[in-house]
Design goal:
Bound molecules: adenosine monophosphate, magnesium ion
Distance between the termini: 54 Å
Mean pLDDT: 93
Strand content: 25-35%
Largest sheet: 6 strands, mixed
Strand order of the largest sheet: 7-4-6-5-9-8
CATH architecture of the largest domain: 3-Layer(aba) Sandwich
Structural class: alpha/beta
Number of helices: 8
Oligomer: single chain
């Protein structure tokens, strides 16, 4: 009797697999933002997402001021040709305004950041003027209105400076501080519960430094996931290692989904007899998708368990990182109501050949560089086995090969997703 072959992750093309683009679309429609907000001090707001638009209570800068060290004058003092001598009547410092009014024929010594004195609308930089005692000479080349930062140049009063959904980074926090705002309404922390599954796993806590029995390995995924989740905007709930047992898996998934907004597991979602996460998810959850046309990450379960968003990631350590970055991270951003959700993708020239058959989207590990003409280039880290976690450690980007793409030759254009601050 011949063996009737079932679809498997070895097939180059499986019609039943869901394209990544469709998986992203389903995720977008399945996840609604958490609308609970809390008020935090600005110094605790890094990485948090604004829950409300911020309208500026004031103009920045509040008054017109000098952009340079020099002399504040009225444009009417600029000669039509040649030179003219102006009378110096005072000095304006940053933080110490000059009360005097500048009339045509007069000038005030002014320093960067000082408020423009009344009557002055132009600053002649000190390099273009000649001072002697209480007079200063300027010429016809002075440009009217130059070197003045007008009031409200950066922000107008009542303007919406930062929209709801903005993730607060150093620049945004600086802007808020410049507006005098020191508490902000942000989306509450997202609670993420995670656990590893597998009878072969041993925890570092109990077994680090020991020789593991045959067939056992250290649970690395939980540590990878915890590090990927590390953010002031996320509260993590580490539920440890769950054995390959249907009751234990059921209980773990139930408990995780009751405590968290989002649940991430690793392992146990293939079609094997010990893959209980798959079984329990189908029984307890609303399955949105299951098998993706991507490598690594073909088995990837997504849906809802109770009210929690659920991701069953594959057990392979590389697949964990890839699927986390492609799906879990965007899902967390969607829960936060963040404006920018999907990973940044850039074009680069490949310096490596990469074997691929059209059909699935592939995420290879890459090392960024620069070609001779200054363009971004990328080299493969080499062998791409899904168990080679060190390939991610060597890489500083993912190389994204579209489903229809075949083998890549050196010089071909590909897409990359830089890690930048993503992994640390
Ligand atoms: P699974 O998806 O459960 O079939 O696991 C696929 C592969 O990933 C197996 O070789 C596992 O031993 C490995 N694996 C699963 N979970 C972990 C984990 N938490 N840490 C390291 N390797 C794992
Ligand atoms: Mg397993």
């Amino acid at each position: 009797m011949t063996i009737e072959k079932q679809p498997s992750c070895d097939d180059p093309v499986e019609p039943a697999l869901l394209p990544v683009i469709e998986a992203r679309r389903r995720m977008a429609s399945a996840i609604s933002p958490i609308n609970d907000a809390e008020s935090v001090h600005l110094s605790d707001s890094l990485a948090r997402v604004l829950a409300k638009d911020i309208h500026s209570p004031r103009a920045v800068p509040p008054q017109s001021n000098s952009a340079m060290d020099g002399y504040a004058i009225s444009r009417e003092s600029i000669p039509a040709s040649g030179e003219t001598t102006l009378q110096l009547i005072g000095t304006a410092w940053a933080g110490r305004p000059c009360e005097q009014i500048v009339k045509p024929g007069q000038a005030i010594r002014i320093f960067t950041g000082a408020i423009m004195p009344e009557g002055a609308d132009t600053v002649v930089i000190q390099e273009h003027a000649m001072q002697s005692d209480d007079t200063v000479r300027i010429d016809a080349e002075v440009q009217p209105g130059k070197n003045v930062r007008p009031a409200g140049e950066d922000v107008q009063k009542d303007e919406c400076v930062l929209c709801s959904g903005t993730t607060l980074g150093a620049a945004e926090i600086g802007v808020l501080a410049s507006l005098g705002i020191n508490t902000v309404d942000v989306v509450r922390k997202i609670r993420v519960a995670f656990f590893s599954t597998g009878d072969e796993l041993r925890t570092l806590d109990e077994h680090a430094g020991t020789e593991l029995p045959l067939g056992m390995l250290f649970d690395s995924n939980r540590h990878t996931i915890k590090a990927l989740l590390a953010s002031p905007a996320i509260e993590t709930i580490d539920l440890g290692v769950v054995p390959d047992d249907v009751d234990a898996t059921r209980e773990a998934l139930r408990s995780a989904s009751m405590q968290a907004d989002l649940v991430v597991t690793s392992g146990g979602i293939s079609a094997g007899d010990a893959d209980f996460v798959a079984q329990v998810f189908q029984e307890q959850g609303q399955v949105s998708f299951w098998k993706l046309a991507m490598r690594p990450g073909r088995p990837l379960a997504f849906g809802l368990v109770n009210d929690a968003v659920f991701f069953g990631l594959p057990g392979n350590p590389v697949a964990v990182v890839v699927t986390y970055l492609q799906f879990v991270k965007p899902a967390i951003k969607r829960l936060q109501g963040a404006i920018r959700v999907e990973p940044v993708t850039l074009p680069a020239i490949s310096t490596s050949a990469m074997r691929k058959t059209p059909g699935r989207m592939e995420f290879q590990r890459g090392i960024l560089g620069r070609s001779d003409d200054g363009e971004l280039s990328v080299a493969s880290t080499g062998k791409q086995g899904a168990g080679r976690l060190t390939s991610i450690a060597q890489a500083d980007c993912l190389i994204v090969l579209e489903p229809e793409q075949g083998t890549v030759e050196p010089g071909d254009r590909v897409k990359i997703q830089p890690f930048f601050g993503l992994l640390a």
